[in-house]
Amino acid sequence: MSIPAATVLPREVFHRALAVGYQRVTNQHTATFSLTDAFTHSGEKTVGVGVGIGW
């Protein structure tokens, strides 16, 4: 989305949010595990879990 410099955005466009994440790599550096959590001031919530495997 491109916004011209002179454009004034309504207040509703901006949201307050917080995201927290954790990532762990195994001792052999072949796998990772990640966990994230995010929520907004308006009550929306998101949780994510991920696993990565490499060789």
What is the element layout, followed by pairings?
Layout: E1 17-25, E2 31-40, E3 45-53
Antiparallel strand pairs: 1-2, 2-3
Annotation keywords:
single chain, 3-stranded antiparallel β-sheet, mainly beta, 55 residues
How would you portray this structure in words?
It is a single chain. This protein has one domain (15-53). It contains no helices and three strands. The chain has strands at residues 17-25, 31-40, 45-53. The chain has a three-stranded antiparallel β-sheet with strand order 1-2-3, with no helix packed on it. The radius of gyration is 18 Å and the shape is elongated.
Helix share, percent: under 10%
Q: Regions with pLDDT < 50 over 5+ consecutive residues?
A: none
Average pLDDT for all residues: 82
Question: What is the domain total for the residues?
Answer: 1
Spell the H/E element sequence: EEE
Rg, Cα atoms, Å: 18 Å
Distance between the termini: 38 Å
Quick synopsis:
With 55 residues, the protein is mostly beta strands.
